[in-house]
Design brief:
It contains 13 helices and 13 strands. It is an alpha/beta fold. Bound molecules: nicotinamide-adenine-dinucleotide and sodium ion (NA).
Length: 395
């Protein structure tokens, strides 16, 4: 079939298998171009199909030469109905891993559930014995807590006060004022349930009890801080409360791993266009200004550049350069004082009329479509493609 993008608000309902494969190939080529990393050899990535998790899987495999198990929740294809992009990404990843002689298997299901954790542990036992690196990179709007059976929904709201600021609809370029009502106590608790550290800790507890963590095993989860501008809706909002919880959980897990000389650390990553971040108000305007500035400075990075640098320079480099809260700061270039000063300047004057000049609206929009395999260089979108592309290990 011929597959075209069909968008509804901040989501795209279709995905292109060839475009997704090309994205994966580009990421593999980037990692290979940076040379080998003396790092993990057996890796579990939770949230492995898109964004930072996919980049982590690719860096593990093609940078470190690692065997990888990837867990994700994606929709498979059926005749006439394309799969979700993470499914096509994973199909492409497994195909290219196999060609490179690298072990790669995937598990498609709810990572929050006991069943998927058990299935993953069984697969590790059977195929790898133990893992030495666990990347936790889930981004989800909902979670059913397996202990209580309760389903929680996360929200993106400020805490305390009403928040008003500029935002942009990146499809139209319209800059408008958005007003968000503050969260109530339930909103905060629910968001912490979904995006906090509880599930990360469950994964590590269960893996440790099952004996599948190697001596010296390390685990990393990803967080975000960002500028003052987005603080009310991000770091000091409901999602920020969840990130505070996630970061605190790293210390709890670290203590639990002391007897195997393990490590649990949070890496604060850069703001990037992913399915998760497109849905957060105000962030798309911030990102389009940030991209413009970082590209002009020659310091722009996508997920793969961020994660390759995280592995090469920090996790397996000579110095993790932890901040005063024990976090890796691979958002260091985003947070540079001169970069943020320029964002502030542009933010103050941004309007519908000038945004395509002062901001990188096109870069935002292209990245968004790229997430779904569209507008990828070198792909012939007029060509008939088979939408039924399976992840080899899930067949
Ligand atoms: P993403 O949406 O690209 O990836 C989310 C992953 O989680 C996918 O692999 C998806 O399949 C998987 N997933 C979601 N629900 C699942 C479930 N129930 N069971 C199994 N898998 C499930 O998101 P991302 O932007 O790469 O975010 C990953 C992490 O990085 C998050 O913690 C996020 O807060 C953090 N982060 C993101 C940014 C950013 O700007 N995008 C910046 C810094 C940190
Ligand atoms: Na991810």
């Amino acid at each position: 079939m011929i597959i075209e993008p069909r968008t509804r608000g901040f989501i795209c309902l279709t995905a292109h298998p060839t475009g997704c494969e090309q994205n994966v190939i580009n990421q593999i080529e980037y990692v290979k171009s940076k040379g080998t990393i003396d790092g993990a050899k057996k890796v579990l990535v939770i949230g492995a199909s898109t964004g930072f998790g996919l980049a982590s899987r690719i860096t593990s495999a093609f940078g470190c030469g690692a065997s990888t198990i990837g867990v994700f929740l994606e929709k498979g294809p059926s005749a006439g109905r394309p799969a979700s992009p993470g499914y096509y990404n994973s199909a492409a990843f497994e195909k290219h891993a196999a060609e490179a002689g690298l072990y790669a298997k995937s598990i498609n299901g709810d990572a929050f559930s006991k069943e998927i954790k058990q299935q993953t542990i069984d697969m590790i036992k059977e195929d790898l014995g133990q893992v030495d690196l666990i990347i936790y990179s889930l981004a989800s709007p909902v979670r059913t807590n397996p202990n209580t059976g309760k389903r929680h929904k996360s929200v993106l709201k400020p805490i305390g006060d009403v928040f008003s600021n500029k935002t942009v609809d990146f499809h139209t370029g319209n800059v408008t004022e958005v007003t968000i009502q503050p969260a109530n106590e339930d909103d905060i608790a629910n968001t912490v349930e979904v995006m906090g550290g509880d599930d990360w800790e469950m994964w590590i507890d269960e893996m440790k009890a099952a004996g599948v963590l190697a001596e010296g095993a390390q685990t990393y989860a990803y967080s975000y801080i960002g500028p003052k501008l987005t603080e009310p809706v991000y770091r000091k909002g409901t999602i920020g409360a969840a990130k505070d919880h996630l970061e605190a959980t790293a210390f709890k897990i670290q203590d639990k791993l002391a007897d195997i000389n393990g490590k649990a650390v949070v890496s604060v990553n850069k703001a990037l266009v992913t399915q998760a971040s497109s849905a957060i108000p105000v962030i798309p305007l911030y990102i389009s200004l940030l991209y413009k500035i970082m590209k002009a400075e020659g310091i722009h990075e996508g997920c793969i550049e961020q994660i390759q640098r995280l592995y090469a320079d920090r996790i397996y480099g000579s110095d993790m350069k932890l901040d005063d809260k024990g976090r890796i700061r691979i958002d260091d270039w985003e947070m540079r004082e001169d970069v943020q000063a320029k964002v502030d300047e542009l933010w103050a004057i941004a309007t519908t009329e000038n945004l395509s000049d002062i901001g990188d609206l096109k870069g935002y929009s292209d990245d968004f479509f790229n997430l779904f395999g569209f507008k990828v260089d070198g792909v012939d979108y007029a060509a008939d493609v088979n939408e039924v592309v399976e992840v080899p290990s899930l067949k």
